[in-house]
Here is the input.
Amino acid sequence: MEKTFKLMENKAIKLFYKMKFGHLPVDSLRSYAINYQLLKNKKEKNAYFPLPFGSAVIITTAQSFDSMAPFNCSATLFACSLMAHSLGLGSCFMGFVQIGANRDKKIRDWLEMPKEHQSYGAMVVGHPDVKYRRLIERKMPNIKWH
Here is the structure.
């Protein structure tokens, strides 16, 4: 993995990949490399939050006293799930992760959540294990807008 990230630092190889695959895969790989380096540099974190069912976890937090925080965080996660679906990824809302982020001190410390913040939602994003080859055919809905 690190070899791939180091290859992408070379401008000639980056240009070749952009010509062959386009901008999106190269930019995505670059952002993964940045995140990988950030996580690698934070080895001092001793809490581990294992989630075997997904490759990325999105946890939304906001200040506890904000009355619009639950709605804003839910709307944000819903928009993320729509974007993930458009990219061919699967997403799943995780209520127990949200509860754990609010109640467990090790998890709060690992996430570096300020004391006045609370988690209002959590979602896992990853590549689905199952691909449905035969979906049920549906008739187009008969909708009239007035």
In short: The radius of gyration is 20 Å. The longest strand covers residues 117-126.
